[in-house]
Amino acid sequence: MVAVQVQRLFSFFASRIRLLIKHRSTVDIFASALIRMGAGFLFWIVATQTHSASDVGIATAVISAASLVVAISTFGFEYGLLRFFDQFKNIPRRLIESTVSFVLVSTFVFSFVFVIGMPLWAKGLQSSFYSPVMGLVFIILALVTSLHLLFHRIYIAVSRTEFTLLQSTIAGSVRFIPLFLIPVAFHGSLTLSWIIGIGTSVFIGLVFIIPRFMGNRFIRFRIEKDVIGTIGAFSFKSGVGSFLNSATALIVPLLVVNILGTEQNAYFYMSWALANILVNIPVSSAWTVLAEGSRQVAIKQGVFRRELKLSILILVPLIIIVFLWGDKILSIFGSEYSFYGYDVLKLLAISSLPMTFNYLYLSTLAIDMKMKEVITFNAVITSISLVGSYALLPLIGLNGVGLSWLTAHCLVLIYILIRKYSRQISTS
Fold first, then answer.
1. Residue 21 pLDDT more than 80?
2. What is the DSSP code string of 7-27?
């Protein structure tokens, strides 16, 4: 009897491994996300041992703020790259150059505005990060982050997902070098290390990889109106949805800094960094659904089911690990990180399950060009998460963020399931 059970268990895992190998692009994107999050996690382990909690809190808030600027300034063009790449597959240079050029200009403008208005919307950072030099550091961080994002989407669009893996590996490993070379006394040392890591991967992509898809030509600065016009409307609507989708993760660190202080933000960010390893699994699956489903709309439901199975297969063991040893993992940063961050980590980990279904479902809506619904769902998730976090942070601390995030995704999941079930009944 035991032998039969063992054989069934072995057959189960063997079939799942064969499924993973069959879909190489999904594996590459998953691995890229895991490397990116894992390298970031290791980076902050080292940073917490060499820098104060206040310095870590400032750096994580600045990096989140730069990512927030990028989420706004890209206008969803990373979605447009994927959705319309087939229309430009004979002349991809036009799409790539117009998109990259447009995003660079808008990112510079928005990052400059953020630096000027920092006393207004990031007062917690003003005392240590409000100077011409640090302002320039912030702008550079936003620019390289936007290019890093676009290059990742280009690699997916051209079905060369192995380069997403290379990009994450380079960015994740190189940032450790300046971490040990830049003096700790320099307030921007952690941020500068982050810039050098991402910047190196962007430079390699710009010089050695992207030209492969453009007839061995380097990217030129040009914005073609017809290209922007073709992908603009879809991209902008997708960008609004994407911004709403990521706004919680990017705005919450600024809320924590302003309400609880930089040290509490350090504790929260380490929990979020660990939870992000789980969160990026449904995010990566959603990108796969969008990319493959856009090329062949007829197979989108099959891709949806495949990615849902793969995501859950990976997530469940990771969630178990979080509940069993999450406090031990956080204690690597320091005992205070485990004390303040373990409970919120568990809440964030559980939320990855309803999040998986929600994100994959939204990708199928995007393929069908139902962008109003995508925006509405993301607006609901963001509103519940941010309003709940703002209200609960002063009352129950960091757990307020995790509880709000989990509640938002569960409510949306319940609504989607009820709607899908009601439609099935009405059509039967």
1. no
2. HHHHHHHHHHHHHHHH-HHHH
What is residue 220's DSSP assignment?
P
Give the pair of three-digit tokens for residue 273. Answer: 């960094």
Tell me the average pLDDT of the chain.
Answer: 84
Alpha carbons 163 and 407: distance in angstroms, whole number: 36
Q: Residue 338 has what pLDDT? A: 92
- Helix crossing, 225-259 with 399-427: angle to 10°? 130
Q: Which residue has the tokens 């208005």?
A: 117
Cβ(267)–Cβ(341) below 8 Å: yes
Q: In this structure, are residues 400 and 393 in contact, taking their beta carbons and an 8 Å threshold?
A: yes
What's the predicted TM-score (pTM) here? 0.75
Q: Which residues contact 9 (CB under 8 A, 6 or more apart)?
A: none
**Which pLDDT does position 126 carry in this prediction?**
61
Residue with tokens 């490397």: 35
* Closest-CA residue to 350 (of 425, 410, 289): 410
3-state secondary structure of 152: helix
Query: Of 13-22, 83-92, 366-375, which range is least confident?
Result: 13-22
Q: How far apart are CA 254 and CA 250, in angstroms?
A: 8
Query: b/e per residue, 240-272, with b = 16+ CB within 10 A?
Result: bbbbbbbbbbbbbbbbbbbbbebbbbbbbbbbb
Least-confidence region, from 29-38, 138-147, 198-207, 251-260: 29-38
Our measurement of the distance from residue 176's CA atom to the centroid of its chain's CA atoms, rounded to an integer in Å, reads: 21
**Pairwise CA distance, residues 166 & 189, whole Å:** 25
What tokens does 32 get?
């890229």
pLDDT score recorded for residue 91: 73
pLDDT in tens, 335-381: 899 999 999 999 999 999 999 999 888 888 888 778 788 888 888 99
β strands within 55-208, DSSP E:
none
Q: How many CB atoms lie within 10 A of CB 14?
A: 10
Cβ atoms within 10 Å, residue 2: 6
Q: Are the C-beta atoms of 386 and 400 separated by less than 8 Å?
A: no
Q: Residues with Cβ < 8 Å from 423, sequence gap 6 or more?
A: none
Q: Is 277 helix (H, G, I), strand (E, B) or coil?
A: helix
What phi-psi label fits residue 219: left (phi over 0), alpha (psi between -120 and 50 degrees) or beta?
beta
